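Q: Predict the assembly, please.
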Amino acid sequence: MPRYVLKLEYKGTNFSGSQKQLSNIRTVQGELEKAFSTLTKQNIRTIFSGRTDAGVHAKGQIVHFDVNSCNIDFTDNKIVYSLNGLLPVDMSIAWIKLSNMDFHAQKSAVGRFYRYKIISRKQRSAFDEDCLFIRENVDVEYINKALSFLIGEHDFSSFKKVKTSNPAKICKIYLAKCHKNNDEILIDIVANRFLYGMVRTIVGTILYLERKSLSPESLKDILKCRNRAKAGPTASPQGLTLMKVIYDKNINMEMAYENIFS
Amino acid sequence: MPRYVLKLEYKGTNFSGSQKQLSNIRTVQGELEKAFSTLTKQNIRTIFSGRTDAGVHAKGQIVHFDVNSCNIDFTDNKIVYSLNGLLPVDMSIAWIKLSNMDFHAQKSAVGRFYRYKIISRKQRSAFDEDCLFIRENVDVEYINKALSFLIGEHDFSSFKKVKTSNPAKICKIYLAKCHKNNDEILIDIVANRFLYGMVRTIVGTILYLERKSLSPESLKDILKCRNRAKAGPTASPQGLTLMKVIYDKNINMEMAYENIFS
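A: Predicted assembly structure:
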C-alpha cells in the first residue's frame, strides 16, 4: 500500500473551495478524486495540506493519497498526462512522487506561503486576472511597515473569520513583505499555519488603514485586541494564491521563500 | 462632430469574434457599442482596425467612432472608468483620445503586430491561458529559419482561410521572429496587413513541418504554391493576440515592434 504525494495547481475562480462537500457542488478535491476514480476504478481518498476558500488559487497545493491494490505506477509521467487529461482545464497536477508512509500533507507541513496580488492602475484591463484591482495608488512602504508588526508568534484572532471553530489562534509568521513590479503589488506571507481567512483579512485591513490615512502602527493595535471586529474588511479571494507548502523542518524559511520558483 | 480613437483589450475566449453580427451572438463590437449606447443614449457606430476571429485576443485593438451632438467628453478618465464599469470583465478600454477626422482605424493603419504564444512543457498547467499547449519540445531556431522565408512582399494565398472572398492576397511582412522565455515560445509577426487566418495557418504549418522532420525551407515552397491545400493545419485561436496597430507612416517597423511595451 504505497503513499504518493502530488503538487496541484488550480484557478479557484470556478470552484466552491478546495474541500470536498457532501452536496454536488464543484470542489477541487471532488474533481481530483473523480479523475482518480475514473483512472483506477477505485475510490482514492486525498489529503490536502490545507483547505483553500472558494475563489482562492493554488500554484503549490500539496496532496497525499494511499493506493491499495493497484498496478498503476503514479510516478510515471504518462499517468500524470492521463490524469491531467481527465481533470478540468482549471486544475492540473505538476508531479506525483512516491512518499514515506509517515509523510502527511497536512500534519507534516511546517510552513505555508501565500501571495496576495493587487493590480493598481488607472484603468482595469481585460487581462487583470487572479488579482484585486484598485484604481488608487498603493503605498508599498506603508504596507511593509504594517506587515512588519505581524512577524513572530501572535494570537491572530483579530484576523480570523468570525465563524471559525478551531480554538488554536496562535500562528508564527516568518516572513511578510510587499513588493511592486510596475502596476503589480505582491504581498507575500510565510507562516507555520494560517487561520481561516487570515491573509485576506490582513490585506483588507492594511488597505483600509491606508485609505483612512491611519498609521501603519494601527495594525499592531488591532492585532493586540484579538477581536475580529477591530479589523477591516476581508479582501476578495481572487487575489490570493497558495504558492508553496514547506515540509523541511531544517530549512530557513527565508530561503524556502526565495527558492519558490527554483 | 468629433472623432475619437480608443485602445481596446479583450480576451477572445468567450467572444464569437470581434465583428458585430446581426444575430444575437456575443461579439466584442456588439458589447462595446452596447456600453456606448447605455452611457450616451445614442447609437454609436465603431470602426475597428480589423476583425479578429472567434477566440483571438487583443491587447492593442484600435477603434474609432464619431459622436454627433453629445456633451460627453470621452477623453475624461472618468468617462473611461464608466465605460469600463459597463463593459464585461473580459474586455476593457485602455484610453480614449480625440482624433482628426481624416484618421480611420482600419484604412490609416500601416502595420499590425500579432503574437502567437505556445507553452511547451511536459505537463499542462491550470494557469496556461491564452496559449497553445504543446508537450513536445519546440525548436526555436527551426521556427526562426522557416519564418525568415516569409519576410517581404508575397502572395500569401497558401496561408489564407479557404473561404476568404477578398481577392487581394499580397501582404508585406516586415518582421517575423520567434523567441523563448523558459517554457513560453512567442512567435511575433508584423505586416502591413494579414489575410484571414494567416498567422494561425503559418504557425500551424511550421509546427507541422517540424513534427514531420521536414526542412524549414519547405515553408518557402508552400508559400510559392499559393495553394492553401499545400499548407498545414490552422493553429487554434486561443494562442493568438493582436498586440499593436501601427499608424505612423514614417516609423521603422522594427522600432515600432521593439516599442510595443513602452
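The radius of gyration of chain A is 19 Å. The mean pLDDT of chain A is 93.
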